[in-house]
Write a structure and sequence with these properties.
InterPro entries: ATPase_NBD, Gcp-like_dom, KAE1/TsaD, TsaD
Cofactor: Fe(2+)
Strand order of the largest sheet: 3-2-1-4-5
CATH superfamily of the largest domain: ATPase, nucleotide binding domain
CATH architecture of the largest domain: 2-Layer Sandwich
CATH topology of the largest domain: Nucleotidyltransferase, domain 5
Order of helices and strands: EEEHHEHEHHEEEHHHHHEHEHH
Number of domains: 2
Pfam families: TsaD (PF00814)
Protein name: tRNA N6-adenosine threonylcarbamoyltransferase
Catalytic activity: L-threonylcarbamoyladenylate + adenosine(37) in tRNA = N(6)-L-threonylcarbamoyladenosine(37) in tRNA + AMP + H(+)
Distance between the termini: 28 Å
Structural class: alpha/beta
Bound molecules: 5'-O-[(R)-(carboxyoxy)(hydroxy)phosphoryl]adenosine, zinc ion
Shape: globular
Length: 350
């Protein structure tokens, strides 16, 4: 519909420069420039390298997005930008660019929460999100379970990782197996030819004693250490490391815990919709296991296609569009880049 708002979203919280354009729930453009190759030899994202790459990619990525959507900046109704959480220097590039474009084109600006945007992106594929819903966000920097009553007003955190994020665990295990960076997609592919029941790796925070204090929290650091110990023992014994079996067994341990806790959160809160977002939501085993377990309880699982699970500009535009439609006031032009932005803050108040 022509009268739905045309919203442009800018994402620079980590290593992807993303610019997306949506009209209502319809995706018109999703331009992306990634600096992932520049970080690969360090085994993780180097903040300064990411910031510089955002700076170089911003203007050409903006042009690509506008061309793809067949619109000009003058046509845009509002500009949304990731205000946080993320890498401070990287966020700063996106926020400064958004302010520049908003000022030049006289458009309202919305500083939005990156994690809420990972939830909102699903509406581009599956339509409005039934509320309440449970959202599980699993990325390189975060692993959280949230109760979403009203995405425009704020979400209620139910639990989060107490150490490593799920994606971080994939990246670290891939590194110790010598598989490269980022680890998630490589482990996903390597696991296909492995046996997931070969090694019984630990399931963090699932013991009865953890129920009281950590029912909806995650812990992946013990799992990562267990994989490291297992691999070291093999190497010490001069035996080859069965990389596919280790990958599959590790992946199974992560997906088992994530899906069990997500379903438990749905059942405990009487919620029938589970939306999964963040880079790890691209994991093929996670998607299958979540579907299987949810189906047993009549819970509907919504997961965006893999390209929309990892960081992108469309997710920021999707959340911006949601805020505009709900009549939420824009942020002020002096909005901050907030590397520790709280999950309860969906957009920077005007
Ligand atoms: O959401 P995202 O693109 O960036 C952050 O906000 O962190 O997530 C990146 C993370 C990385 O740790 C990457 O290894 C992981 O998502 N990832 C995956 C898969 N694709 C990306 N993890 C498991 N399986 C995948 N297929
Ligand atoms: Zn992300």
């Amino acid at each position: 519909m022509r009268d739905e708002p045309l919203v442009l979203g800018i994402e620079t919280s980590c290593d992807e420069t993303g610019i997306g354009i949506v009209r209502g729930h319809t995706l018109l453009a999703d331009a992306l420039a990634s600096s992932v190759d520049q970080h690969a030899r360090f085994g993780g994202v180097v903040p300064e390298v990411a910031s510089r790459a955002h700076l170089e990619a911003m203007v050409p990525t903006m042009q690509r997005a506008l061309d793809e959507a067949g619109v000009t900046l003058a046509d845009i109704d509002a500009i949304a930008v990731t205000s946080g959480p993320g890498l401070a220097g990287a966020l700063l590039v996106g926020v400064a660019a958004a302010k520049g474009y908003a000022l030049a084109a006289e458009k309202p600006i919305y500083g939005v929460n990156h994690l809420a945007a990972h939830v909102a992106v699903d509406t581009l594929e599956h339509g409005p999100l039934p509320e309440p819903a449970i959202a599980m966000l699993v990325s390189g920097g975060h692993s959280s379970l949230l109760l979403v009553d009203d995405l425009t007003a704020g979400v209620t955190p139910l639990g989060a990782t107490i150490d490593d994020a799920a994606g971080e665990a994939f990246d670290k295990v891939a590194r110790l197996l010598g598989l490269g960076f980022p680890g998630g997609p490589i482990i996903d592919r390597t696991a296909v030819s492995g046996d997931s029941r070969k090694i019984a790796f630990p399931r963090g925070l699932t013991a009865p004693k953890d129920q009281a204090a950590h029912r909806f929290d995650f812990s992946f650091s013990g799992l990562k250490t267990a994989v490291a110990r297992w691999v070291e023992a093999r190497e010490r014994a001069g035996e080859p490391v069965p990389v596919a079996d280790v990958s599959a067994s590790f992946q199974e341990a992560v997906c088992d815990v994530l899906t069990a806790k997500a379903i438990d959160a749905c059942l405990t809160n009487g919620v029938k919709t589970l939306v999964i977002g963040g880079g790890v939501a691209a994991n093929s085993r996670l998607r299958v296991l979540a579907e299987q377990r949810a189906a047993k309880h009549g819970i509907l699982v919504r997961v965006p296609r893999p390209g929309l699970c990892t960081d992108n500009g469309a997710m920021v535009a999707a959340l911006g569009s949601h805020l505009v439609a709900a009549g939420v006031a824009p942020s002020r032009l002096d909005l901050p880049a907030d590397s520790a932005m709280s999950l309860t803050e969906v957009s920077v108040a005007g």
